[in-house]
Design a protein that fits this description.
alpha+beta; OB fold (Dihydrolipoamide Acetyltransferase, E2P); 7-stranded mixed β-sheet; 4-stranded mixed β-sheet; 11 helices; 14 strands; about 30% helix; globular; Asp-tRNA_synthase_2
């Protein structure tokens, strides 16, 4: 027999594994007993009400386990125990000392510092570097990696809206050095399409709200910059990257099936999608692994492709997103294969050793969404004081 307590946020329930013919084997019981604390598991079984009140869990039921899967195994020794973190105020001093020591070490430093981050961000490219009381820091290019770390705790969804800074010299109609970013990271229960479904519901709701509640403002914009209302579907179209490549091929446009699409090709694909599906808002997913960041999860059925996506409005990309690799050994191998010095991302890699949920996320610049929704010719028309490589003041 084995007893396993599983936790979902603040709720706990006891699971019981008992050797029985054709139900639970001795091997399964040994497997359950060997699970390290804070490992991520999936459990299937029958819910029952025990004869006596449950004292050690929040839920007054038991699960008679029939199947148990370890999704991600935590390291045997954790830097802080859940029991220490949950102690009463009188008992908390010891836990505080342990936790503060952990924060000062290579732990979850800077999770809640989206506007100013220590070290580097997203590999260290295109950031504004500055001195922070003698320590190297940078204005946030994106809080994405920090949100991934927070997902490894008890958060299941993390959303953040705020200023984002990029130091790249992009002299285009759709790039700014400072913009308003919407970033999200979320637990994935079964498939990375769950992230795309969130985007579908979010943006269809946004578009509906603008069309229904901002008619006067949209008419004012249209009088100065005439545009046709955005075409979008009730259920957002999702195409795979190979399907997009095939559409281009049928139109006489040859592209590398394992390469990226340039801006001109993306616009041409957008027109093909509009003509065929009568929508200007769609999601393209299963991008080639070679053109995505090291932390992107490869497709289980073909590692040449990945569980990633881009989202387009009127043929221009507004969102990049993906399922992230949550297994620390695999994540380290991918970083090394991409030529990344793992010492520079040790904090990030270490966070996955303490039990990490399968998760994914996305980031979007809201000025670009406004530009394309109103079909403006330049993103600078969406910002009162646009910051670009050549403009700082006013």
């Amino acid at each position: 027999m084995a007893f396993v307590v599983v936790r979902e946020g603040l709720f706990t329930v006891q699971c019981v594994l008992m050797v029985a013919k054709e139900k639970v084997s001795e091997q399964m019981v040994k497997f359950a007993n060997a699970l390290s604390r804070e490992s991520i598991v999936d459990v299937a079984g029958i819910v029952s009400v025990p004869g006596e009140a449950m004292k050690g869990t929040s839920q007054q039921v038991e699960i008679q386990v029939r199947k148990i899967y370890c999704i991600n195994r935590a390291v045997p020794i954790l830097p802080i125990s859940i029991e220490d973190a949950a102690r009463s105020e009188k008992e908390i001093e010891k836990a505080e000392k342990i936790f503060r020591s952990f924060l000062r070490s290579e732990g979850f430093r800077g999770i809640h510092t989206p506007k100013l981050m220590g070290g580097t961000s997203e590999g260290g490219a295109a950031v504004f570097r500055l001195d922070y009381k003698g320590q190297p820091a940078c204005l946030a290019q994106s809080p994405q990696l920090h949100k991934q770390i927070s997902i490894n705790g008890d958060f299941r969804r993390v959303y953040e809206v705020g200023p984002v800074f990029r130091a790249e010299d992009s002299f285009t109609h759709r790039h700014l050095c400072e913009f308003t970013g919407l970033d999200a990271e979320m637990e994935i229960k079964e498939h990375y399409s769950e992230v795309m479904d969130i985007i579908d519901r979010l943006f269809v709701t946004i578009f509906d709200h603008l069309n229904e509640n901002c008619k006067g403002e949209l008419e004012a914009v249209s009088r100065q910059y005439e545009f046709e209302p955005l075409k979008y579907l009730r259920k957002t179209l999702q195409l795979t990257f190979p399907e997009g490549v095939q559409m281009l091929k049928e139109a006489g446009i040859e592209v590398d099936p394992y390469g990226d699409l340039n801006t001109d090709i993306e616009r041409k694909l957008g027109k093909l999608v509009r003509d065929k599906y009568d929508t200007e808002f769609y999601i393209l997913h299963r991008y080639p692994s070679a053109i995505r960041p090291f932390y992107t999860m490869p497709c289980y059925d073909d590692p040449l492709y990945s569980n990633s996506f881009d989202v387009f409005i009127r043929g221009e990309e507004i969102i990049s997103g993906a399922q992230r690799i949550h297994e620390p050994e695999f994540l380290t191998k991918r970083a090394e294969a991409c030529g990344i010095d793992v010492k520079t991302i040790a904090t990030y890699l270490d966070s996955f050793k303490f039990g990490a949920w399968p998760h994914g996320g996305f980031g979007v610049g809201l000025e670009r969404v406004v530009m394309l929704f109103c079909n403006l010719t330049n993103i600078r028309k969406t910002s009162l004081f646009p910051r670009d490589p050549q403009r700082l003041a006013p």
